[in-house]
Amino acid sequence: MDASYLDLLMAQQEEVSEEAAGGGGVWVVADVSGGAIAPVTLEAIGAARTLADSLGAYVYGVLLGEGVSDGSTSLTTSLAQTLYQAGADGVRVADDPSLAQFVSGPYLSVLSDLFEQERPEVIMFGATRQGQELAPRLAQRFGGGLIEHVAALSLDESTRTVQGSVPIYGGEYFQILACPEARPQFLTVEPGAFPAPFIDNFRKGEPTTIDVKPVEPDVRVVGPADDFDPPQVPLAQADVIVAAGRQAGDIETVKQLATALGAQLAGDRGARDAGWIGPEQIVDVRGVEVAPQMYVAVGIRGDTFHNAAIEDARFIVAIHPDANAPIFQVADMCLEVDPREVLPALLETLE
Amino acid sequence: MRIITVLGRVLDPSGIVVKATAGRIFVNREEYLLQPADRCALEVALRIKAAGDAEVVALPRGPLPDDDVLRQALATGADRAIYLTGDGFKKADEAVAALVLAAAAERLGGADLVLAGSTTMDTGQSQLGSRIAEALGCPQIIGAWQASVSDGKVQAVLRQGTAYVTVEADLPAVVTVLPGALKPRYPDGARLVNIYKGTGEIAEALEQWDASDLVDEDSLKPLLERRGQDFPPERERGARLSGTPEEMAQAVADALRERMGR
pTM of this prediction? Predict the structure, then answer.
């Protein structure tokens, strides 16, 4: 047995070394939300690891924010270490008060300077709001191609070209796109499309700090839009739906969740019987059939008619105390718990 | 003030059937719609025009086989429409389109505001708006619910976290509008007839420009290449979460947050 492997078995920590030579590499720009790395970033690092292994390249993570490089916080591992543990070989950290919240101007300037210097081969973002604002601008600036919402990756090894499958009509089928010539290749990765990588607690490394030049944001937040009333969308065309069922417990909490998510309120027949929703809000094949991006079923048991009506939903979260509820057979995320226990915590986390 | 709105078309999804088992897409009824998000962007432009003095110019979002969407825009209330043609432009992707549109804006004498849909209904691509902003070197507001112009600034309403906020940027700027953000108006019947018959003043409003006059040959080379189709595997469902209610709440919040704001 290899001695270094023995070291590993004996919980000796593995020092991740990063090659000094510049150029190339697969870079992942981290999405930090609520003081933690967004799961999509870790998934992207996992995907980048696979790509980089085939390309013979290194994986680098980029962290932007305020206080992200502070390793001495109460978090057992700082955010940069999380990136190392997920599979990054190097991490660059830009820590500045101007980066505390995502604003495209300062973020763009940091990333643009960094990539100008490092000349990556592939740059990945999560297909979140941040990624969707930054990736196209950087792609245009560097003359690179951008494949958005990548749900599956493959590699054309002869030309070192990444091929990404992009969902068409929200996932009816995929189109395979590639950027054969221009470099760097930009990708945004669909949340949940790739498996979360194995978190290896023995990987660690020393992040490199990058300088931040002060840049005035070109888009300023004026204040809350209190007088803005979101338009009433018919349920069948709504993007986000929060639906209540007989086991929802307190309808007011469900309504708060709908407001917090900017969602339309709906329900099953049980909710209608309880007088919580109107007849036009019943999700059922005999009522309204829906096709939202997100469907949160709170306390809905999910009979055949209801489950058939939500067939086209892209992402379904189900919360119901009964482990045998049929809704769990169609949901992407199942919580076997009384909604009354989890909703207040969920509302608090979302705020 | 000059407002440019960028419009595209989409094959009506209710007319197609995707059969993953056969590995084919059947087009039963070939009917094209204006991209829903672009339609909302046009509505924003027309509302700004109604509130003040503005000229609304409609441009295509990419190569189009015909100028139907531009005629619709004229009938709905746009003042001018420019149909971009040219052999080099036929294969254009978003990167090329952004350069061509920026050059077109320059030839028009500059644009104070560029409005586009935030995403396309079919390909789900949201890069065009940001790419135009970069090509013009101006600020971008992505995914707006509403936009208005006052004092040389554009104000827009965005969703941030769990609330709506107003943001502001100096003109010129690019704003992309979410699909379904507002209720778009319908084209005016008489104008529609005139624009298709080529009668009246409105017929003069539709121009045709060759894209290769606007940018050089190299810029017309698309960066992306299509390499076939693929069909998604059957979705795996029923993943159960475990842990305390707080841990579950955190996992759900992360998943929801990532999928919001597009």
Answer: 0.88
